[in-house]
Amino acid sequence: MIVKVQAEDFDAAAEIRTLIGGRTDVGAVVTFTGLMRGGEGATLTLEHYAGMSEKELTTIAEEAAHRWPLTDLLIIHRHGTLNPGDQIVLVATLAAHRGDAFAAAEFLMDWLKTRAPFWKKEEAGGKTPGEAKWVEARADDEKAAERWEEKE
Amino acid sequence: MIVKVQAEDFDAAAEIRTLIGGRTDVGAVVTFTGLMRGGEGATLTLEHYAGMSEKELTTIAEEAAHRWPLTDLLIIHRHGTLNPGDQIVLVATLAAHRGDAFAAAEFLMDWLKTRAPFWKKEEAGGKTPGEAKWVEARADDEKAAERWEEKE
Amino acid sequence: MQLLYFAWVRERIGTGEETLSLPGEVTTVGQLLDWLAARGEQYAAALDQRSHIRVAVNQTYVGTDHPVSDGDEVAIFPPVTGG
Amino acid sequence: MQLLYFAWVRERIGTGEETLSLPGEVTTVGQLLDWLAARGEQYAAALDQRSHIRVAVNQTYVGTDHPVSDGDEVAIFPPVTGG
User: Fold this and answer.
1) Helix H or strand E encompassing B109
2) Residue A130 lies in a domain
3) Residue A31: beta bridge partners?
4) What is the nearest CA distance from C62 to chain B, expressed in angstroms?
5) pTM value?
6) How far is A110 from chain B (nearest CA, A)?
7) What is the pLDDT of residues C33-74, one digit of tens each?
8) Interface ipTM
Protein backbone atom coordinates (compact mmCIF):
# COMPACT_ATOMS: atom_id res chain seq x y z
CA MET A 1 0.00 0.00 0.00
CA ILE A 2 1.38 3.39 -1.01
CA VAL A 3 -0.03 6.64 0.42
CA LYS A 4 1.71 9.92 -0.34
CA VAL A 5 0.90 13.58 0.21
CA GLN A 6 3.31 15.75 -1.71
CA ALA A 7 3.79 19.09 -3.47
CA GLU A 8 5.68 17.55 -6.40
CA ASP A 9 4.04 16.12 -9.49
CA PHE A 10 3.94 12.32 -9.85
CA ASP A 11 4.59 9.82 -12.63
CA ALA A 12 1.48 7.65 -12.55
CA ALA A 13 2.93 4.93 -14.79
CA ALA A 14 6.09 4.59 -12.69
CA GLU A 15 4.12 4.53 -9.42
CA ILE A 16 1.83 1.78 -10.71
CA ARG A 17 4.77 -0.22 -12.03
CA THR A 18 6.30 -0.04 -8.54
CA LEU A 19 2.99 -1.11 -6.99
CA ILE A 20 2.66 -4.14 -9.29
CA GLY A 21 6.32 -4.97 -8.68
CA GLY A 22 6.45 -7.82 -11.17
CA ARG A 23 3.56 -9.74 -9.61
CA THR A 24 1.63 -11.93 -12.05
CA ASP A 25 -1.53 -12.45 -9.99
CA VAL A 26 -2.94 -9.02 -10.88
CA GLY A 27 -5.60 -9.19 -13.58
CA ALA A 28 -7.11 -5.73 -13.24
CA VAL A 29 -5.66 -2.27 -12.64
CA VAL A 30 -8.06 0.65 -12.29
CA THR A 31 -6.72 4.19 -11.96
CA PHE A 32 -8.36 7.52 -11.33
CA THR A 33 -6.42 10.68 -12.05
CA GLY A 34 -7.86 14.05 -11.08
CA LEU A 35 -6.69 16.97 -13.19
CA MET A 36 -7.06 20.70 -12.70
CA ARG A 37 -9.62 22.21 -15.08
CA GLY A 38 -9.47 25.88 -15.99
CA GLY A 39 -8.69 28.57 -18.51
CA GLU A 40 -5.36 30.21 -19.20
CA GLY A 41 -3.84 31.88 -16.17
CA ALA A 42 -6.11 30.13 -13.70
CA THR A 43 -4.52 28.72 -10.55
CA LEU A 44 -5.64 26.26 -7.91
CA THR A 45 -4.13 26.25 -4.44
CA LEU A 46 -4.54 23.14 -2.33
CA GLU A 47 -4.20 23.61 1.40
CA HIS A 48 -4.05 20.53 3.61
CA TYR A 49 -3.78 19.57 7.26
CA ALA A 50 -0.24 18.20 7.31
CA GLY A 51 -0.15 15.12 9.49
CA MET A 52 -3.87 14.41 9.40
CA SER A 53 -4.08 14.35 5.60
CA GLU A 54 -1.70 11.41 5.29
CA LYS A 55 -3.25 9.69 8.32
CA GLU A 56 -6.77 10.04 6.91
CA LEU A 57 -5.77 8.79 3.45
CA THR A 58 -4.17 5.76 5.11
CA THR A 59 -7.41 5.08 7.01
CA ILE A 60 -9.39 5.31 3.77
CA ALA A 61 -6.91 3.01 1.99
CA GLU A 62 -7.12 0.46 4.81
CA GLU A 63 -10.90 0.54 4.68
CA ALA A 64 -10.83 -0.22 0.95
CA ALA A 65 -8.34 -3.07 1.48
CA HIS A 66 -10.67 -4.44 4.16
CA ARG A 67 -13.80 -4.28 1.99
CA TRP A 68 -12.47 -5.70 -1.30
CA PRO A 69 -10.02 -8.49 -2.16
CA LEU A 70 -7.34 -6.18 -3.55
CA THR A 71 -3.80 -7.15 -4.40
CA ASP A 72 -2.63 -3.64 -3.54
CA LEU A 73 -3.60 0.02 -3.91
CA LEU A 74 -2.15 3.50 -3.89
CA ILE A 75 -3.25 7.07 -3.21
CA ILE A 76 -1.16 10.13 -4.07
CA HIS A 77 -2.54 13.61 -3.34
CA ARG A 78 -0.76 16.85 -4.10
CA HIS A 79 -0.88 20.16 -2.23
CA GLY A 80 0.37 23.62 -3.17
CA THR A 81 -0.36 25.74 -6.22
CA LEU A 82 -1.35 24.08 -9.51
CA ASN A 83 -2.07 25.17 -13.08
CA PRO A 84 -4.70 23.97 -15.60
CA GLY A 85 -4.00 20.43 -16.76
CA ASP A 86 -1.89 19.61 -13.68
CA GLN A 87 -2.40 16.32 -11.88
CA ILE A 88 -4.06 16.67 -8.45
CA VAL A 89 -4.71 13.14 -7.26
CA LEU A 90 -4.03 9.55 -8.28
CA VAL A 91 -5.81 6.47 -7.01
CA ALA A 92 -4.94 2.99 -8.29
CA THR A 93 -6.37 -0.38 -7.33
CA LEU A 94 -5.00 -3.81 -8.24
CA ALA A 95 -7.13 -6.94 -8.06
CA ALA A 96 -7.57 -10.34 -9.65
CA HIS A 97 -10.92 -9.26 -11.13
CA ARG A 98 -12.17 -5.98 -12.53
CA GLY A 99 -15.33 -5.59 -10.43
CA ASP A 100 -13.36 -5.31 -7.20
CA ALA A 101 -10.80 -2.92 -8.72
CA PHE A 102 -13.53 -0.61 -10.07
CA ALA A 103 -15.61 -0.60 -6.89
CA ALA A 104 -12.60 0.04 -4.64
CA ALA A 105 -11.33 2.90 -6.82
CA GLU A 106 -14.74 4.61 -6.76
CA PHE A 107 -14.98 4.10 -3.03
CA LEU A 108 -11.51 5.58 -2.47
CA MET A 109 -12.40 8.69 -4.47
CA ASP A 110 -15.79 9.13 -2.79
CA TRP A 111 -14.35 8.87 0.70
CA LEU A 112 -11.30 10.95 -0.17
CA LYS A 113 -13.54 13.73 -1.49
CA THR A 114 -15.55 13.90 1.73
CA ARG A 115 -12.96 12.98 4.39
CA ALA A 116 -9.41 13.87 3.38
CA PRO A 117 -8.52 17.27 4.89
CA PHE A 118 -7.67 19.21 1.74
CA TRP A 119 -9.19 22.52 0.65
CA LYS A 120 -9.14 24.06 -2.82
CA LYS A 121 -8.90 27.77 -3.56
CA GLU A 122 -9.40 28.81 -7.18
CA GLU A 123 -8.39 31.92 -9.04
CA ALA A 124 -9.96 32.15 -12.49
CA GLY A 125 -7.18 34.14 -14.18
CA GLY A 126 -7.87 35.49 -17.66
CA LYS A 127 -8.18 39.13 -18.63
CA THR A 128 -10.20 40.19 -15.60
CA PRO A 129 -8.75 38.15 -12.75
CA GLY A 130 -11.16 38.13 -9.84
CA GLU A 131 -10.68 37.30 -6.20
CA ALA A 132 -9.50 33.82 -5.32
CA LYS A 133 -12.42 31.75 -4.01
CA TRP A 134 -12.64 28.69 -1.80
CA VAL A 135 -14.33 25.82 -3.59
CA GLU A 136 -17.55 24.81 -1.86
CA ALA A 137 -18.17 21.23 -0.83
CA ARG A 138 -20.69 19.55 -3.13
CA ALA A 139 -23.84 17.83 -1.93
CA ASP A 140 -23.46 15.10 -4.55
CA ASP A 141 -20.02 14.22 -3.19
CA GLU A 142 -21.68 13.59 0.18
CA LYS A 143 -24.34 11.52 -1.54
CA ALA A 144 -21.72 9.54 -3.46
CA ALA A 145 -19.92 8.78 -0.21
CA GLU A 146 -23.12 7.73 1.56
CA ARG A 147 -23.86 4.91 -0.88
CA TRP A 148 -20.94 2.96 0.62
CA GLU A 149 -22.34 3.13 4.15
CA GLU A 150 -24.89 0.37 3.55
CA LYS A 151 -22.36 -2.03 2.13
CA GLU A 152 -20.31 -2.54 5.30
CA MET B 1 -11.71 8.61 -29.94
CA ILE B 2 -8.93 6.04 -30.29
CA VAL B 3 -9.67 2.36 -30.99
CA LYS B 4 -6.80 -0.01 -31.76
CA VAL B 5 -6.46 -3.75 -32.16
CA GLN B 6 -2.81 -4.72 -32.26
CA ALA B 7 -0.29 -7.45 -31.51
CA GLU B 8 2.28 -5.03 -30.05
CA ASP B 9 2.37 -3.91 -26.45
CA PHE B 10 1.18 -0.36 -25.67
CA ASP B 11 2.42 2.52 -23.53
CA ALA B 12 -0.69 3.46 -21.54
CA ALA B 13 0.74 6.76 -20.26
CA ALA B 14 1.75 7.92 -23.75
CA GLU B 15 -1.61 6.90 -25.23
CA ILE B 16 -3.52 8.83 -22.56
CA ARG B 17 -1.26 11.86 -22.96
CA THR B 18 -2.11 11.83 -26.68
CA LEU B 19 -5.81 11.51 -25.89
CA ILE B 20 -5.77 14.49 -23.49
CA GLY B 21 -3.71 16.44 -26.02
CA GLY B 22 -3.14 19.44 -23.74
CA ARG B 23 -6.85 20.06 -23.09
CA THR B 24 -7.61 21.69 -19.75
CA ASP B 25 -11.33 20.85 -19.52
CA VAL B 26 -10.68 17.27 -18.40
CA GLY B 27 -11.13 16.83 -14.66
CA ALA B 28 -11.24 13.03 -14.44
CA VAL B 29 -9.33 10.24 -16.17
CA VAL B 30 -10.29 6.65 -15.40
CA THR B 31 -8.28 3.79 -16.84
CA PHE B 32 -8.71 0.05 -16.79
CA THR B 33 -5.76 -2.15 -17.69
CA GLY B 34 -6.22 -5.89 -18.04
CA LEU B 35 -3.12 -7.96 -17.34
CA MET B 36 -2.39 -11.62 -17.93
CA ARG B 37 -2.38 -13.64 -14.71
CA GLY B 38 -0.48 -16.88 -14.46
CA GLY B 39 2.51 -18.82 -13.19
CA GLU B 40 5.92 -19.12 -14.76
CA GLY B 41 5.86 -20.49 -18.28
CA ALA B 42 2.14 -19.95 -18.76
CA THR B 43 1.00 -18.46 -22.04
CA LEU B 44 -2.19 -16.87 -23.25
CA THR B 45 -3.09 -16.73 -26.92
CA LEU B 46 -5.70 -14.24 -28.04
CA GLU B 47 -7.44 -15.02 -31.30
CA HIS B 48 -9.68 -12.35 -32.80
CA TYR B 49 -11.93 -11.79 -35.81
CA ALA B 50 -9.83 -9.30 -37.75
CA GLY B 51 -12.07 -6.64 -39.19
CA MET B 52 -15.02 -7.25 -36.91
CA SER B 53 -12.99 -6.81 -33.70
CA GLU B 54 -12.07 -3.21 -34.50
CA LYS B 55 -15.57 -2.51 -35.84
CA GLU B 56 -17.22 -3.90 -32.71
CA LEU B 57 -14.91 -1.97 -30.36
CA THR B 58 -15.74 1.20 -32.29
CA THR B 59 -19.46 0.51 -31.87
CA ILE B 60 -18.97 -0.01 -28.13
CA ALA B 61 -16.90 3.20 -27.87
CA GLU B 62 -19.57 5.17 -29.73
CA GLU B 63 -22.26 3.79 -27.46
CA ALA B 64 -20.31 4.98 -24.37
CA ALA B 65 -19.76 8.42 -25.93
CA HIS B 66 -23.51 8.59 -26.58
CA ARG B 67 -24.51 7.62 -23.05
CA TRP B 68 -22.13 9.78 -20.99
CA PRO B 69 -20.77 13.32 -21.41
CA LEU B 70 -17.20 12.26 -22.09
CA THR B 71 -14.41 14.48 -23.34
CA ASP B 72 -12.85 11.50 -25.10
CA LEU B 73 -12.08 7.81 -24.68
CA LEU B 74 -9.81 5.06 -25.92
CA ILE B 75 -9.79 1.28 -26.25
CA ILE B 76 -6.70 -0.75 -27.11
CA HIS B 77 -6.93 -4.55 -27.30
CA ARG B 78 -4.06 -6.87 -28.10
CA HIS B 79 -4.08 -10.20 -29.90
CA GLY B 80 -1.41 -12.87 -30.25
CA THR B 81 0.55 -14.75 -27.61
CA LEU B 82 1.14 -13.15 -24.20
CA ASN B 83 3.05 -14.02 -21.04
CA PRO B 84 2.17 -13.52 -17.34
CA GLY B 85 2.11 -9.83 -16.42
CA ASP B 86 1.62 -8.71 -20.02
CA GLN B 87 -0.94 -6.04 -20.80
CA ILE B 88 -4.03 -7.33 -22.65
CA VAL B 89 -6.42 -4.40 -22.83
CA LEU B 90 -6.56 -0.71 -21.99
CA VAL B 91 -9.68 1.39 -21.63
CA ALA B 92 -9.51 5.09 -20.71
CA THR B 93 -12.28 7.62 -20.28
CA LEU B 94 -11.92 11.40 -19.93
CA ALA B 95 -14.68 13.57 -18.48
CA ALA B 96 -15.25 16.76 -16.55
CA HIS B 97 -16.49 14.76 -13.55
CA ARG B 98 -15.48 11.43 -12.08
CA GLY B 99 -18.91 9.77 -11.99
CA ASP B 100 -19.22 9.79 -15.76
CA ALA B 101 -15.63 8.63 -16.30
CA PHE B 102 -16.05 5.69 -13.89
CA ALA B 103 -19.44 4.60 -15.26
CA ALA B 104 -18.30 4.79 -18.88
CA ALA B 105 -15.11 2.81 -18.18
CA GLU B 106 -17.06 0.02 -16.45
CA PHE B 107 -19.59 -0.01 -19.26
CA LEU B 108 -16.84 -0.27 -21.89
CA MET B 109 -15.27 -3.23 -20.12
CA ASP B 110 -18.58 -5.01 -19.55
CA TRP B 111 -19.63 -4.68 -23.18
CA LEU B 112 -16.16 -5.46 -24.48
CA LYS B 113 -16.10 -8.69 -22.42
CA THR B 114 -19.38 -9.89 -23.87
CA ARG B 115 -19.32 -8.47 -27.42
CA ALA B 116 -15.81 -7.95 -28.77
CA PRO B 117 -14.84 -11.00 -30.89
CA PHE B 118 -11.71 -12.15 -29.04
CA TRP B 119 -11.07 -15.62 -27.64
CA LYS B 120 -8.48 -16.61 -25.07
CA LYS B 121 -6.60 -19.89 -25.03
CA GLU B 122 -4.52 -20.60 -21.94
CA GLU B 123 -1.62 -22.94 -21.38
CA ALA B 124 -0.69 -23.31 -17.72
CA GLY B 125 3.04 -24.00 -18.21
CA GLY B 126 5.05 -25.05 -15.16
CA LYS B 127 6.63 -28.44 -14.62
CA THR B 128 3.73 -30.46 -15.99
CA PRO B 129 2.45 -28.41 -18.90
CA GLY B 130 -1.02 -29.59 -19.87
CA GLU B 131 -3.06 -29.08 -22.94
CA ALA B 132 -3.93 -25.52 -23.95
CA LYS B 133 -7.54 -24.76 -23.07
CA TRP B 134 -10.06 -22.25 -24.38
CA VAL B 135 -11.24 -19.95 -21.63
CA GLU B 136 -14.97 -20.33 -21.03
CA ALA B 137 -17.27 -17.31 -21.12
CA ARG B 138 -18.38 -16.34 -17.62
CA ALA B 139 -21.99 -15.98 -16.60
CA ASP B 140 -21.16 -12.99 -14.39
CA ASP B 141 -19.70 -11.15 -17.35
CA GLU B 142 -23.09 -11.54 -19.04
CA LYS B 143 -24.76 -10.32 -15.87
CA ALA B 144 -22.42 -7.34 -15.61
CA ALA B 145 -23.23 -6.38 -19.20
CA GLU B 146 -26.97 -6.74 -18.65
CA ARG B 147 -27.09 -4.09 -15.94
CA TRP B 148 -26.48 -1.43 -18.60
CA GLU B 149 -29.51 -2.49 -20.65
CA GLU B 150 -31.99 -0.79 -18.35
CA LYS B 151 -30.16 2.51 -18.31
CA GLU B 152 -30.68 3.45 -21.95
CA MET C 1 -20.69 -17.94 -49.15
CA GLN C 2 -17.57 -17.02 -47.24
CA LEU C 3 -17.54 -18.92 -43.92
CA LEU C 4 -15.21 -18.03 -41.04
CA TYR C 5 -14.71 -20.13 -37.89
CA PHE C 6 -12.97 -19.06 -34.70
CA ALA C 7 -11.56 -20.59 -31.49
CA TRP C 8 -12.81 -24.13 -30.74
CA VAL C 9 -15.34 -23.98 -33.57
CA ARG C 10 -12.38 -23.51 -35.92
CA GLU C 11 -10.39 -26.28 -34.27
CA ARG C 12 -13.25 -28.80 -34.33
CA ILE C 13 -14.16 -28.11 -37.95
CA GLY C 14 -10.48 -28.19 -38.84
CA THR C 15 -10.30 -24.99 -40.85
CA GLY C 16 -10.69 -21.28 -40.18
CA GLU C 17 -12.18 -20.37 -43.50
CA GLU C 18 -14.00 -21.93 -46.42
CA THR C 19 -16.21 -20.96 -49.32
CA LEU C 20 -19.39 -22.95 -49.86
CA SER C 21 -22.35 -22.69 -52.18
CA LEU C 22 -25.66 -22.81 -50.35
CA PRO C 23 -28.47 -25.08 -51.50
CA GLY C 24 -31.61 -23.10 -52.28
CA GLU C 25 -33.49 -24.23 -49.17
CA VAL C 26 -30.95 -22.64 -46.79
CA THR C 27 -32.13 -19.06 -46.31
CA THR C 28 -31.61 -18.34 -42.58
CA VAL C 29 -28.77 -18.60 -40.05
CA GLY C 30 -30.60 -21.42 -38.28
CA GLN C 31 -30.95 -23.41 -41.49
CA LEU C 32 -27.29 -22.75 -42.30
CA LEU C 33 -26.19 -24.18 -38.94
CA ASP C 34 -28.39 -27.29 -39.45
CA TRP C 35 -27.05 -27.78 -42.95
CA LEU C 36 -23.41 -27.39 -41.83
CA ALA C 37 -23.90 -29.77 -38.87
CA ALA C 38 -25.10 -32.43 -41.34
CA ARG C 39 -21.94 -32.12 -43.46
CA GLY C 40 -19.90 -34.46 -41.27
CA GLU C 41 -18.76 -35.49 -37.83
CA GLN C 42 -16.40 -32.56 -37.33
CA TYR C 43 -19.11 -30.04 -38.17
CA ALA C 44 -21.56 -31.80 -35.88
CA ALA C 45 -19.01 -31.77 -33.03
CA ALA C 46 -18.42 -28.05 -33.55
CA LEU C 47 -22.07 -27.05 -33.78
CA ASP C 48 -24.03 -29.48 -31.60
CA GLN C 49 -24.28 -27.24 -28.55
CA ARG C 50 -26.24 -24.53 -30.26
CA SER C 51 -26.47 -22.34 -27.10
CA HIS C 52 -22.68 -21.98 -27.23
CA ILE C 53 -22.63 -20.78 -30.84
CA ARG C 54 -22.62 -17.13 -31.91
CA VAL C 55 -23.06 -15.97 -35.49
CA ALA C 56 -22.13 -12.73 -37.24
CA VAL C 57 -23.29 -11.97 -40.78
CA ASN C 58 -21.14 -9.38 -42.52
CA GLN C 59 -19.46 -8.64 -39.16
CA THR C 60 -22.69 -7.94 -37.28
CA TYR C 61 -24.19 -10.22 -34.61
CA VAL C 62 -27.43 -11.84 -35.72
CA GLY C 63 -29.98 -14.32 -34.44
CA THR C 64 -30.95 -17.65 -36.00
CA ASP C 65 -33.84 -16.07 -37.95
CA HIS C 66 -31.52 -13.72 -39.81
CA PRO C 67 -31.46 -14.26 -43.61
CA VAL C 68 -28.28 -15.46 -45.31
CA SER C 69 -27.32 -15.54 -48.98
CA ASP C 70 -24.35 -16.58 -51.06
CA GLY C 71 -22.73 -13.14 -51.06
CA ASP C 72 -22.48 -12.96 -47.24
CA GLU C 73 -19.48 -13.30 -44.95
CA VAL C 74 -20.75 -15.52 -42.14
CA ALA C 75 -18.66 -16.07 -39.01
CA ILE C 76 -19.42 -18.82 -36.51
CA PHE C 77 -17.73 -18.85 -33.11
CA PRO C 78 -18.10 -19.52 -29.36
CA PRO C 79 -19.09 -16.83 -26.83
CA VAL C 80 -16.29 -14.25 -26.73
CA THR C 81 -13.72 -14.16 -23.92
CA GLY C 82 -11.59 -11.08 -24.57
CA GLY C 83 -10.86 -8.16 -22.25
CA MET D 1 -4.59 23.73 23.84
CA GLN D 2 -3.08 23.75 20.37
CA LEU D 3 -5.65 25.16 17.91
CA LEU D 4 -5.30 24.84 14.12
CA TYR D 5 -7.49 26.61 11.55
CA PHE D 6 -7.68 25.84 7.82
CA ALA D 7 -9.05 27.41 4.61
CA TRP D 8 -11.61 30.19 5.17
CA VAL D 9 -11.79 29.50 8.91
CA ARG D 10 -8.08 30.35 9.03
CA GLU D 11 -8.53 33.44 6.87
CA ARG D 12 -11.46 34.81 8.88
CA ILE D 13 -9.79 34.24 12.25
CA GLY D 14 -6.59 35.71 10.82
CA THR D 15 -4.19 33.00 11.97
CA GLY D 16 -3.57 29.33 11.21
CA GLU D 17 -2.44 28.32 14.64
CA GLU D 18 -2.62 29.49 18.23
CA THR D 19 -2.22 28.12 21.74
CA LEU D 20 -4.95 28.95 24.25
CA SER D 21 -5.70 27.91 27.82
CA LEU D 22 -9.23 26.67 28.27
CA PRO D 23 -11.42 27.93 31.10
CA GLY D 24 -12.62 25.09 33.33
CA GLU D 25 -16.21 25.14 32.06
CA VAL D 26 -15.16 24.30 28.47
CA THR D 27 -15.07 20.50 28.33
CA THR D 28 -16.61 19.59 24.92
CA VAL D 29 -16.07 20.55 21.27
CA GLY D 30 -19.43 22.36 21.24
CA GLN D 31 -18.50 24.43 24.28
CA LEU D 32 -15.10 25.18 22.73
CA LEU D 33 -16.74 26.52 19.54
CA ASP D 34 -19.13 28.71 21.61
CA TRP D 35 -16.28 30.02 23.73
CA LEU D 36 -14.12 30.79 20.65
CA ALA D 37 -17.01 32.51 18.82
CA ALA D 38 -17.37 34.86 21.82
CA ARG D 39 -13.70 35.89 21.69
CA GLY D 40 -14.29 38.56 19.02
CA GLU D 41 -15.82 39.50 15.71
CA GLN D 42 -13.36 37.54 13.59
CA TYR D 43 -14.00 34.34 15.53
CA ALA D 44 -17.74 34.88 15.32
CA ALA D 45 -17.51 35.43 11.53
CA ALA D 46 -15.49 32.23 11.17
CA LEU D 47 -17.69 30.05 13.36
CA ASP D 48 -21.25 31.37 13.03
CA GLN D 49 -22.43 28.84 10.41
CA ARG D 50 -21.94 25.83 12.61
CA SER D 51 -23.20 23.39 9.93
CA HIS D 52 -20.19 24.37 7.80
CA ILE D 53 -17.66 23.68 10.53
CA ARG D 54 -15.77 20.42 10.96
CA VAL D 55 -13.61 19.58 13.97
CA ALA D 56 -10.79 17.08 14.45
CA VAL D 57 -9.33 16.35 17.89
CA ASN D 58 -5.83 14.89 17.73
CA GLN D 59 -6.31 14.41 13.97
CA THR D 60 -9.54 12.43 14.24
CA TYR D 61 -12.96 13.75 13.22
CA VAL D 62 -15.27 14.24 16.19
CA GLY D 63 -18.76 15.53 16.93
CA THR D 64 -19.70 18.45 19.17
CA ASP D 65 -20.16 16.21 22.23
CA HIS D 66 -16.55 15.01 22.09
CA PRO D 67 -14.50 15.98 25.20
CA VAL D 68 -11.57 18.39 24.87
CA SER D 69 -8.76 19.18 27.26
CA ASP D 70 -5.71 21.39 27.34
CA GLY D 71 -3.33 18.76 25.98
CA ASP D 72 -5.31 18.27 22.74
CA GLU D 73 -4.55 19.37 19.20
CA VAL D 74 -7.87 20.69 17.93
CA ALA D 75 -8.33 21.58 14.26
CA ILE D 76 -11.31 23.61 13.01
CA PHE D 77 -12.05 23.84 9.29
CA PRO D 78 -14.73 23.91 6.56
CA PRO D 79 -16.00 20.79 4.76
CA VAL D 80 -13.11 19.33 2.77
CA THR D 81 -12.81 19.83 -1.00
CA GLY D 82 -9.78 17.77 -2.08
CA GLY D 83 -9.59 15.04 -4.66
Assistant:
1) helix B98-115
2) yes
3) A92, B31
4) 12
5) 0.95
6) 10
7) 999 999 999 999 999 999 999 999 999 999 999 999 999 999
8) 0.95
